[in-house]
Structure formats: structure tokens, C-alpha cells
């Protein structure tokens, strides 16, 4: 629904034209001027030679599989440094019929990955009286694709919200797999030379573990940064944009990678700050299960609406401390973040 709405709004803009089923083959580069002057495109299933679209500015928004590093290298530029943190996430998603009274009338529950087995799940209300349910595991802990295995996996999660709904809900789709290998960041801001008239954006620059739901949000704030950079004129556009984008990416990158590093088998450096933040967030999740203020505060930070320091506000810290004063056994049993969307 959201994507349809965004697409409709976009196509209402008088200066936007959509070329469907058409692949960008490569940017066109004017070596003398050191700038990109357009792209070569090829219609799918068409034997004709590639067409040319001329442009003052080309933005590579082709997602995680972006060919920009290869294209840049072919043009004689350095490739950006790539940072990866492997997570080997495997998701299985299924749609179910939704009854409004299920999940105590709430519209979402998110069970964050935590010890001992780092399994996670999300149940989200969708248009058309449906639930979309995703279950997942890290580093090869695959969710079974068959009916009973899927249900058993839901039962193995640390809290029962998802299992309680799907044990009796009517399935509306097959169980659909999705694999995600690694968080991937390409450091374009470090490049000393970059062609003029060319930028890289969104997942093509940085793609996060989707568990944290940050990719679209980050692409949105990058769009705002690009608007501001363009308003200041074309001079050194790439340098200014990549610097601004890098600052914006730092926060969601730290949230995603920092959280993934809670998993003992995820490889990466764990400085004291990361260890402290992870310890604190684990306590926040535990307390958030019964405290929607904490759940909402975490989601506001994860969705880039507030700075991470907001979670260290003394009022929030007090709620985290209070929420963890429950007897150890009860706390151990219930390690999830349940967020109620109102
Ligand atoms: C399972 C999952 C759940 C997610 N959940 C969330 C969430 O809850 N919240 C959130 O904010 N983000 C979420 N994300 C992340 C989000 O989907 C991405 O960050 C976002 O879609 C990135 O947008 P993009 O435009 O940069 O790239 P993409 O959405 O990947 O779009 C790139 C497009 O370019 C096209 N393309 C590629 N190469 C070419 C070419 N040569 N020529 C022409 N076209 C080309 C592709 O077909 C594609 O349509 C999730 C991701 C996944 C996988």
C-alpha cells in the first residue's frame, strides 16, 4: 500500500518520467571533462542496441547489487572501501488472515533476537485484514519452510505472541524465503577523486541488516541531504553529498552493526562502548515488553526520528532500571520488545 502510494505521488510530478523494464547498462563518461553525461539503457527483451539518456546528474539508486564500484574502476577511479559484517540472516515470511481481537487488539509485535539462540520474529498488521509474519535466525539457523516446522520455530521464540496468533490463524500465502548475507557499507566519502555529475545513494551506498528496518528511512534522509546539497550549487557536489550522507549513515550503521555484534558468533570488533550500549539495550528491551514508552522511544531512535542519546535520558534510564527489578526468572523468560502501534 505504501509503495503504491509513493509511486502514485511520484508519477504525479510533472518532471518525472518512468521507463519500465529497462536496465542501465553503464554510465556514459566524458573523459576530457571528467564527468558523467548520461547513461546507456537497454529495454528488456529488446534486441535493439542500447539507448542513451543524457543527464546533468546521474544517481545510482540500483540497490545493494550496485555496479558503481566496477564502473568506477573501469573508468580509472579507485573503488570505495567496503565494510561488511556477516550475519547470514534467513527469513521466512507468510501472510495470515487477521482478526482484530488477536494480539490483544494490538497491530504489531517485534521479538528481537537475543540469547540463547538469537531467533527473532515480527507480526505486523497489513491492509486487507492480514498479518504479515516474518521469522528468522542468524548464521545458518534456517526457519523451516514447511507448515509444522514454521509453527515449531514460532513456538521456540522467547515469548509466545506470534505463536499464539499463527497457531490458529488461516494462512493466506505460501511460506516465502529471503536470505541476507551481510551488512555492507561502501565508503564513497573517502574517495579523493570522483566523476562529476554522478552520485550513489540508498542501498547502493549502504545496506543494513533488514531486521532493524532502517534502509528506507536512511534513503529518505539521504534524499533530504541531496536536496540541500543541490540547493547550494553544483560545486564539489559528490564530496559534499557523500560527506553528509556518511554522517547520516553513521547512526543507523552503529545501531545495526552494534546490535548484530551482540551475537557471539558475528565477527567484528567490540569496543567497550559497543559492549556498554548492547548491555543497556538488552535491558531496555526487557523492560520495554511491559512499557510502551520505552518501546516507542527505541523505535523512534531506530527510525531516525530521535538521536540515540535520547535513550540515555535519565527518565528513560530510570524506566529501564525499574523494568529490570522483576525477579530474575521472570526477566529471563520474557526477553522481547513488544511494540504496540496505536
Ligand atoms: C526483508 C526486508 C525487510 C526490510 N524492511 C525494512 C523496513 O521495515 N524499513 C526500512 O526502512 N527498510 C527496510 N528494508 C530495507 C529497504 O527495503 C531498502 O533499504 C530500500 O529498499 C533501499 O532502497 P533503494 O532504492 O536504495 O534500493 P532498492 O529498493 O534495492 O531498489 C533498487 C532498484 O534498482 C533496480 N535496478 C538494479 N539494477 C538496475 C539496473 N542496472 N538498471 C535499472 N534498474 C536497476 C532494482 O530492480 C530495484 O528496483 C528491508 C529490506 C528487506 C530485504
Short description:
34% of the residues lie in helices and 23% in strands.
Task: Fill in the keyword field for this structure.
10 helices, alpha+beta, 342 residues, globular, six-stranded antiparallel beta sheet, binds flavin-adenine dinucleotide, disordered C terminus, three-stranded antiparallel beta sheet
Structure description:
The protein has 10 helices and 11 strands. It is an alpha+beta fold and 342 residues long. It has a 6-stranded antiparallel sheet with strand order 6-7-8-5-9-11, with helices on both faces. A hairpin with a 7-residue loop joins β2 and β3 (51-54). The longest helix has 24 residues, at 237-260.
Helix content: 25-40%
Oligomeric state: single chain
The separation of the N and C termini measures: 18 Å
The number of helices is 10
Order of secondary-structure elements? HEEEEHEEEEHHEEEHHHHHH
Q: Would you count the extended β strands for me?
A: 11
The structure class reads: alpha+beta
Percentage of β-strand residues: 15-25%
Largest sheet properties: 6 strands, antiparallel
- Average pLDDT score: 92
Gyration radius from CA atoms, angstroms:
22 Å
Ligands (ions, cofactors included): flavin-adenine dinucleotide
pLDDT below 50 for ≥5 consecutive residues: which ranges? Answer: 328-342
- Describe the global form: globular
Neighbour order of strands in the largest sheet = 6-7-8-5-9-11
Amino acid at each position: 500500500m505504501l509503495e503504491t502510494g509513493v509511486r502514485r505521488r511520484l508519477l504525479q510530478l510533472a518532471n518525472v518520467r518512468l521507463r519500465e523494464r529497462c536496465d542501465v547498462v553503464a554510465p556514459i563518461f566524458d573523459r576530457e571533462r571528467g564527468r558523467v553525461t548520461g547513461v546507456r539503457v537497454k529495454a528488456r527483451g529488446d534486441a535493439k542496441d542500447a539507448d542513451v539518456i543524457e543527464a546533468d546528474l546521474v544517481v545510482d539508486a540500483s540497490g545493494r547489487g550496485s555496479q558503481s564500484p566496477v564502473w568506477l574502476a573501469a573508468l580509472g577511479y579507485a573503488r570505495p572501501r567496503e565494510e561488511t559484517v556477516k550475519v547470514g540472516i534467513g527469513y521466512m515470511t507468510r501472510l495470515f488472515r487477521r482478526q482484530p481481537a488477536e494480539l490483544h487488539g494490538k497491530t504489531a509485535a517485534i521479538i528481537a533476537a537475543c540469547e540463547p539462540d538469537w531467533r527473532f520474529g515480527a507480526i505486523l498488521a497489513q491492509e486487507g485484514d492480514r498479518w504479515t509474519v516474518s521469522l528468522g535466525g542468524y548464521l545458518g539457523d534456517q526457519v523451516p519452510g514447511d507448515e509444522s516446522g514454521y509453527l515449531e520455530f514460532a513456538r521456540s521464540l522467547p515469548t509466545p505472541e506470534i505463536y499464539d496468533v499463527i497457531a490458529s490463524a488461516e494462512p493466506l500465502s505460501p511460506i516465502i524465503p529471503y536470505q541476507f548475507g551481510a551488512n555492507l557499507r561502501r565508503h564513497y566519502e573517502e574517495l579523493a577523486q570522483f566523476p562529476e555529475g554522478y552520485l550513489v545513494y540508498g542501498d547502493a551506498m549502504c545496506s543494513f541488516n533488514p531486521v532493524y528496518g532502517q534502509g528506507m528511512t536512511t534513503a529518505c534522509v539521504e534524499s533530504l541531504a541531496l536536496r540541500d546539497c543541490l540547493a547550494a550549487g553544483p560545486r564539489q557536489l559528490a564530496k559534499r553529498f557523500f560527506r553528509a550522507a556518511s554522517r547520516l549513515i553513521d547512526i543507523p550503521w552503529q545501531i545495526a552493526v552494534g546490535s548484530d555484534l551482540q551475537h557471539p558468533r558475528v565477527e567484528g570488533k567490540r569496543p567497550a562502548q559497543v559492549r556498554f550500549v548492547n548491555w543497556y539495550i538488552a535491558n531496555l528491551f526487557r523492560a520495554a515488553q511491559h512499557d510502551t514508552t520505552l518501546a516507542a522511544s527505541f523505535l523512534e531512535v531506530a527510525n531516525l526520528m530521535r538521536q540515540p542519546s535520547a535513550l540515555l535520558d535519565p527518565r528513560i534510564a530510570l524506566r529501564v532500571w525499574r523494568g529490570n527489578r522483576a525477579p530474575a526468572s521472570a526477566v529471563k523468560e520474557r526477553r522481547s520488545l513488544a511494540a504496540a502501534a496505536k
